[in-house]
Amino acid sequence: MDQKLKVGILGGTGMVGQRFVSLLENHPWFEVVTVAASPRSAGKTYEEAVGSRWKMTTPMPEAVKGLIVKNVNDVEEVAAGVDFVFSAVDMTKDEIKAIEEAYAKTETPVVSNNSAHRWTKDVPMVVPELNPEHLEVIAAQKERLGTERGFIVVKPNCSIQSYTPALHALKEFGPKVVVATTYQAISGAGKNFQDWPEMVDNIIPYIGGEEEKSEQEPLRIWGKVVDGEIVKASTPVITTQCIRVPVSDGHTAAVFVSFDKKPSKEEILKAWAEFNGLPQELELPSAPKQFIKYFEEDNRPQAKLDRDYEKGMGITLGRLREDIVYDYKFVGLSHNTVRGAAGGAVLIAELLKAQGYIQVK
């Protein structure tokens, strides 16, 4: 494309905001021109505002170091200089709902990493390979907001990426009961081992709100658009436990599943190997060429070895075998701050651009 879209990052100094900055460096379609954060960071350069809190393994991109951080609450000022924004703000749920709608009403599309609007009936919650058809509900949302080009799209919880794509690829066999335990990295809490030393040599068997999200959000992804809103699916029945483990990046899931029509192991592996979606068909810049990869080795996938598969945008699976209680069990892994957070949102924005929802103002 001749002209890159101008991007703003709301909440750009936090861990997910930093991941957005890193992923968008040299992006072929998008250019970060504005970073907005809390009033305490406003007025500083991005480099000064982040300071020693840069948590990425790659250096801070030179192009953003000198950007003057804007106050995220100055909605009109921030929106004036961008074509769309990514949202990773750290606020209460009500505050996030309000500020994201405020940006949308300035005719600025919002692609959000936050959970606040995941259950707003006319806001699509999208994994681009799984439910791109939900974007059609944007028309109803615009009507509600009174906008022509402004809207909100959200990505789902990071933990469900480790098992929902695997189940989606098997929808023809009718998954009916799913039991999943997720082992979630500390970066999912926006932390590393330096600022969370209590996690070294430790496991915490509770993550607030995660189990409800992990059980319900896949059903919304598998729902239908009916009369301008998304109605969640009623099946499968999903029950989960979510555990924090001493891993820097990468959410792992141990999954048990029963089907209405039990497939053979060969049928499952074939479905996983052949599965792709609209991002692959459109060859979007951030789309993994092969979305799902299965390992035959008994000791894979491993977070340390496999979280960066397809630059962190792919899903890795392993240990598929029949179970004595359920039909099958397997292990899944996804990179929680790439595919599960900023990278997933960037892919959504690429899909929105490709389908004409985001254009130059």
From TrEMBL:
Source species: Anaerobium acetethylicum
CDD domains: ASADH_C_arch_fung_like, ScASADH_like_N
Keywords linked to the UniProt accession: NADP, Oxidoreductase
Domain Semialdehyde dehydrogenase NAD-binding: 6-138
Family: Belongs to the aspartate-semialdehyde dehydrogenase family.
Highest taxon of the lineage: Bacteria
Active site as annotated: 158 (acyl-thioester intermediate), 251 (proton acceptor)
InterPro entries linked: ASADH-related (IPR051823), Asp_semi-ald_DH_pep-lack (IPR005676), NAD(P)-bd_dom_sf (IPR036291), Semialdehyde_DH_NAD-bd (IPR000534), Semialdhyde_DH_dimer_dom (IPR012280)
BP-aspect Gene Ontology terms: methionine biosynthetic process; threonine biosynthetic process
Protein name (database record): Aspartate-semialdehyde dehydrogenase
Alphabetical list of SUPFAM superfamilies matching this protein: Glyceraldehyde-3-phosphate dehydrogenase-like, C-terminal domain, NAD(P)-binding Rossmann-fold domains
